[in-house]
TrEMBL record, chains A, B:
<keyword id="KW-0805">Transcription regulation</keyword>
<dbReference type="InterPro" id="IPR036388">
    <property type="entry name" value="WH-like_DNA-bd_sf"/>
</dbReference>
<dbReference type="Pfam" id="PF01638">
    <property type="entry name" value="HxlR"/>
</dbReference>
<protein>
    <submittedName>
        <fullName>Transcriptional regulator</fullName>
    </submittedName>
</protein>
<keyword id="KW-0804">Transcription</keyword>
<dbReference type="InterPro" id="IPR036390">
    <property type="entry name" value="WH_DNA-bd_sf"/>
</dbReference>
<feature type="domain" description="HTH hxlR-type">
    <location>
        <begin position="19"/>
        <end position="117"/>
    </location>
</feature>
<keyword id="KW-0238">DNA-binding</keyword>
<dbReference type="InterPro" id="IPR002577">
    <property type="entry name" value="HTH_HxlR"/>
</dbReference>
Length: 126, 126
DNA sequence: CCGCATCCCTAGTGATACTG
DNA sequence: CAGTATCACTAGGGATGCGG
């Protein structure tokens, strides 16, 4: 779907192999995906809740980002057949297993981003 | 430059703060950046060497990716004033400090990417 | 309430020709 | 050798309106 980058020298022929790091990178390449994962790591959320938590995102975009995370099995979508409809999103085991990676990235980012302010919020802590 | 994603709820006013995880993500968001960092983590490379190591990349793109990594202080550019010109690229301390993050991402990717083949090359091991 | 379909727009990539 | 400049192209984001 996104851009899959073969490692180059190890690519066989037309069978392009994917570097695991690049795979991980591409998983969260969507503009809102990391933030979505972060919110869902704290609690299950309904569609409209997520939209409110992500100021500026439109329904269409939110839907697409969630669908892609679903396809990658990072996010679980639970549909309640009620009227009015109710849909809840949560992390799958795979999604939960990604939280430590988020933490590492956050730690490194905190140490290395040129911050005018000295302290920045850790994204995975409450 | 790239897309900087404010965390949303903690954004002050027009002063948008950046989530450290998102910062890290954006640093390596270029299509070839991770692969470039990987190659440079193994050894210093000249411009043409890098181009040969990245099949399909054009000079213009390679230049821009390198310039951006330079601006972020991930990569050091050493120019030798000779004829013909010679330029060598290597990792800065910041760039080197990122290698463990690459490793974590690689490990997670290896465990979770749906691989038809059972084993995939670790990107940072020789 | 949730989401899809559609269209527009921009950023980023790709390709080529030219230069110190 | 190591770029720069230019243009074309594409993927992805954003906005809106309709539908179950």
């Amino acid at each position: 779907m996104a851009r899959f980058i073969p490692q180059g020298e190890i690519v066989p022929k037309g069978q392009e192999e994917l570097c695991p790091v690049t795979y991980t990178q591409n998983l969260t390449a969507g503009k809102w995906k990391i933030t979505i994962l972060w919110h869902l790591s704290k609690q299950t959320r309904r569609f409209n809740e997520l939209q409110r938590l992500l100021p500026g995102i439109s329904k269409g975009i939110l839907t697409r980002q969630l669908r892609e995370l679903e396809e990658e099995e990072m996010v679980h979508r639970e549909v309640y057949k009620e009227v009015p409809p109710k849909v809840e999103y949560s992390l799958t085991p795979k999604g939960k297993s990604f939280i430590p990676v988020l933490n590492i990235m956050g730690e490194w980012g905190n140490e290395h981003m040129k911050s005018n302010q000295k302290e920045l919020k850790p994204v995975t802590k409450d």
